[in-house]
Write a structure and sequence with these properties.
Blueprint (H helix, E strand, L loop, with lengths): L5 E10 L3 E9 L5 E9 L3 E6 L6 E8 L4 E5 L2 E3 L7 H13 L1 E13 L8 E12 L11 E5 L1 H9 L6 H14 L1
Length: about 180
Amino acid sequence: MVQKLKRVRRELVKKGVIVNMYTDTMEMPDGRVAEWDYIEHKKGAAAVLAVLPDGKILMVRQYRNALDRVTLEIPAGARDSVTEDTAVCAKRELEEETGYRCKKLEKLLSLKSTVAFCNEFIDVYLATELSCGTQCLDEDEFIDVAAYEVSDLCEKIYAGEIQDAKTVAAVLAYANRIK
């Protein structure tokens, strides 16, 4: 049976722009003490699976420092503040990263990206009725945009070419929905 552990102390190790890192001192049910890492994602995020009129999905390619490689993902980004509605964030990120706007936006799913050590949450939206807007990348973003068939993205997921959790969850949820 899983028992609740007790956090004895949380100590800030590093304060970052997007995340803070802590060391948590935890008391186990049997009285032993352990230290665990905890990453606090400060604002939460939103992502958007954008479907073009022909049924293709807009994807972005960008370099990810944590992996030291280029990844294929759905557009996403952090909220501007902890009070920003994730739907507003999703619309903004869609246009900033892809140059498209949407008339229709509905929540597809919500997820926690890495529950073992991080509290980051991402609300994922389905965007349809797209029109051209203006791509406006952040100064440190270099993104290529391309459209893919749902079946091609599913193949890339199962082949291990797409591993980003929010993208995997969104594509598979959407593929299941349109079946």
